[in-house]
Amino acid sequence: MSSVHDGIRAAPEGNALSIVRPDDETMVVRLAGAWRIDRGVPPTAPVVQALASPPRVRRLTFDASALRDWDSGVLAFLGRVSALGRAQGVDVEREGLPSGIQRLLALSEAVPEATARPRLARLGFLGGVGQATLAAVASAVDFLGFLGEVTLGIGRIARRQARYRTADLLLLMQQVGADALPIVTLISFLVGAILAFVGAVQLEQFGAAIYVANLVGIAMVREMGAVMTGIVMAGRSGASFAAQLASMKVTQETDALTTTGLSPLEFLVLPRVIALCLMMPLLCLYADLVGILGGAAVGTGMLGLPLRTYLQQTAGAVSVGDMAGGVFKASVYGILIAIAGCMRGMASGRSSSAVGEATTSAVVSSIVLIITACGIFSVVFYVLGI
Amino acid sequence: MPADDAHIEVRHLTMAYGSFVIMRDLDFTIRRGDIFIIMGGSGCGKSTLLQHMIGLLEPAAGEIVYDGESFTSADVAERTRMLRRFGVLYQGGGLWSSMTLAENIGLPLNQFTPLAPAQIRELASLKLSLVGLKGFEDFYPSEISGGMQKRAGLARAMALDPEVLFFDEPGAGLDPISSRRLDDLILELRDSLGATVVIVTHELASIFAIGTNSVFLDAASRTMTAIGPPKVLRDQSPDPDVRRFLRRGENGGA
Predict the structure, then answer these.
(1) Does ipTM surpass 0.90 in this model?
(2) A104 vs B158: CB contact, 8 Å cut-off?
(3) Is residue B184 part of a domain?
(4) What would the mean pLDDT of A35-44 be, rounded to a whole number?
(5) For residue B92, what is the nearest residue in chain A, using CA coordinates?
(6) Which has the closest alpha carbon to A106: A95, A114, A116, A117?
(7) What does pTM read for this prediction?
(8) Banded pLDDT at A3 (limits 50, 70, 90)
(9) Which domain holds residue A278?
(10) In chain A, how long is the greatest CA-to-CA distance?
(11) Confidence class for position A353, pLDDT limits 50, 70, 90
(12) A99: closest CA of chain B, how far (Å)
C-alpha cells in the first residue's frame, strides 16, 4: 500500500487532490492547482477512505507546494480533515501548508470568546397549540390593558395633564383624514355601484327597480360606509401607525422620549387614537354620500331612473338615526384601528423583521376587531330596535 | 502581481448631493495589501466617500478604479462582477434581521457559487469560527450583542473571500477591548487572506495600531489635506489641523 497513489482527482479546471502514503505510518494530502469556491470544494471522501484503509495512519501531513490559489473552500476542507484525523488519534501536522492557511485554521479553532446559550427545545404539536393559546389569551389581556391605559390617558388630556404636541395631532388628522379621501372615494363609489348592480338584477324582476335606492342608501349608511372606511383605514393608517412606532422603537426614539420624561403613550399613541377617532366619522359620512352617488350612477345609467327621483327615494328611505348609528360605529372602528396599530407598534421587537410582523398583526387585528364589533353592533341595534 | 502595486485608485473625485459639494478633487491610490484609513472630523464625508467607493452613491465628477478597471464607468453587469470581490462591514452590522447568522453568510454563497447547502453551511460555520462566533449559526441578529453583530457582519463580509474589505466605523459602539480585538482580527485577516482593507474611522487607537496609509478629509476646505502613513502625518504633517486631529486636539507643536 505504501508509496501508492490511493486516488488522484484531477479536475478539468486544473486543480487536484491526491493522497500519498510514503510509509506505513504517514499519509500526505497533496493539494495542487487553484481551488476556488466557485469551482467547488475539495472532497473529503477520498481522505476518509484513505484514513480507514490499513495500515493504520499515525501521522497526517499536507503538501501544498503546488497549490497556486486557495480560498475558504480549502480552509473548510482542511479544517474538516484535521478534525477527522484528530478524532482517530492521528497526529495532524500542518507545517506543509501556506502560513496564511495555518494562521486562519488556528484562528478558527481558537476557543470562542462567547459560547452560545442553550436554546429552548422545539415544542411538539400539543405544546405548540398550548403556547399559541396562552399567547392569544395574553394578547387579549394586553389589548385590554392598553385600552385601559389609553382611556386613562384621554382622562389626562381632558384634565390638560397630558403632554403631546398639538401640531402633531393636526398633522396626523390631515394624514388619516384629508389624505385618505381619494382611496375612500374610489372604494365607496364602487361599493355603492356594486350594491346597486346586485339589487337591480333582483328587484327589476318584479318591477321594484326604484327600491335599489332604498337598498343602497340603507346599506351604505347603516353598515357599509363605516365598515369599508374602517377596512381602508386599517390598511392605510393602522399599518402606518404600527410601522412608524415599531421603527421608532428600533431606532430607540421611544426610549429617548421616555428618558426625556415624556410618556410615549401620551406623546405618540393618544394623538393617533384621537386623530382617527375624530376623522373616521367624517370619512364615514363622506363615504355614505359617495356610495349613494355610486348607486345613483347605476340607477340612472342602467335602470333609467331620473337622478332627482333616485335621490328623493334615498332621502325618504334613510333616517337621521340610521346615519347617526353608522357614524357612531365608524368612530368606534377608528378607536379600535388606532389602538391595534399603536399597540402592535409599541410592542414590536427591535429588528426590521419585527417591524414587518408588527405591521401585519396590526392590520389583521384591526380587521378582526372591526368585523367582530360590526357583528356585536348589529345584534345590539336589533335588540334595541334602532 | 507585485505586493506594492496600485489596487484602488480614486481619481479627481468630486462628491455632491445635488449642487451641494461635499468634497472635491480627491485623488489617492490604495496599494494592494494596504490597511488604508479614511479619516477626518465628524460629518466631513468619510462615510460618503466609502459609499462612493462601493457604488452606493455616484460621483459628481472623477472616477474610481479597481485594478486598472474603472468602476465608475462600468456597466451594470461588470459592476456586479466587481462588487462580488468586495466585502463591506456596515456601521451597524447591516445583518439581515429575518435570517439567522448562518443564513446571512450563506446568502451570497448560495447566490453566487455552485456549492451544495451542506458545504455552504460548513463555510458559514468556518467564517463564524474565524470571528469567534462558533456555535451561533442558528441565532438571529437580534439575539446577540452589538459587538457580536459586528463580528457576524465581518463574517458575512468575508463570505465570498473578497479582495477588498471595507469597514465603516468598525470600532463604533464597541468597548475598547472588543474594538482592539476587531483590529487584531482585521490585521490577521489581511495578512492571511492577502486582502486590501479600507477603513473609515476617527478612532486614533485603531488608526495608529493598524493603518499603513491614510487620507485626511478636511470639512472646512472640502478636500483632502493630507495623505500618508498615520504616524508620519502625526509627527511630520505640515498641516496643523491634521497634527491636531491625530493628537486629539493637543497642541501640534511646531
Answers:
(1) no
(2) no
(3) yes
(4) 80
(5) A251
(6) A95
(7) 0.70
(8) very low
(9) 126-384
(10) 108
(11) confident
(12) 7
